[in-house]
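Q: Convert this sequence to structure tokens.
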Amino acid sequence: MANILAVGNLVLDTILITDHFPEEDEELRADRRLRQPGGNAANSLYVLSQLGHQTSLVTTLAADQEARLLTQALQQRGIDLSHIQRKLKGATPSSYILLNQQGGSRTIVHYRDLPEVDFEHFAKIEIEAYDWLHFEGRNVPELKGMLNIARTFCPDTPRSLELEKPREGIEALLNQVNVLFTGKHYAQAKGHADAPECIQSLRELAPQTLIICTWGEAGAWWQAPDGALKHVPAQKVRVKDTLGAGDTFLAGVIHKLLASAAPGEAVRYGSELAARKCRQHGLDNLLAPLADDLPLAKAEDISAAKATIAKVPGRDTSVILIRDKDADTIKAYVNNCPHQQVPLNEAYKVDVNPFAKTLKCSVHDAWFKVEDGECVDGPCLGDHLQPFPIRIDEAGNIFAAIDD
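A:
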């Protein structure tokens, strides 16, 4: 476990989840609204705290109700706020985000009316107590002094910088960090066609720095000082939400580098963790298995004469698996009787009549057809068990195939 300090922006994100991106002048109803902490450094620290590290955030907070909400949320996420700089003037920065469920893309509108952390505040922090110092590449006049202090008083402590956007004068500071994170947005804004070209340009400014450049679905490129340019492909996953994926990648890389992993291993782990994040909404429980991470059962173990009850990973749900011998398929139903909304095995095991091709709820003896889940005898006659989506891989492993 390491002690990590990060300097950056803190934002209140308001997220509207929609089924498509609206056309101009369109009126669109959101499916859900979420309000949660945002900002690159805050997001990365939350991921690092889940990875077992002690994390501290250096940022500014206003004196409004939104700031109180952010304080409570960050404390719940295990992030230390003892180095917060309070500002009496200004309002909590806000981001308004449209999250398109068709592919997980997001559109962000920022509003900021709050001064950022000043050099004098940072200079009072005992940075020698930390094992890693991370800085967002913003607030350049103050950042210059912060990096100078860090390099002077903590020469052996790793320092990383996120170069997200071009900012006047920031390139002159790149040689003061050990690890530089950048990406497609910065590269294209500087006129670079791809990640290798961007890294080549940055190498002249930071000859002794590990440079990492992400490029969305194309993956990530990295180059150590005096080393060859290398590439880690992105994992192909079903994307639900890309918001915070870059922050997750950064946290994963730092986590591995702190464990003395080689740069290639660190970048690969960061890519895998970012892909894992893209498969879910938000940043909670990133290390917990998703429903389609672990198999429910093996297809060869599913019989037409016996119902198999399987717990869905990461969910408070179980399913019934049974073979439909006539169709030579495996049927899956939510383990919930429509009569009184209780599991079919609530009282004892689920009986199966392989000749009638039916299975029975153990509570009130309702019988359901294996073929389609219809109740053909009992108190919920005509009702149906709820089908549960599954997929079977080439090795015969049965997985949940659900979107949320």
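The mean pLDDT is 93.
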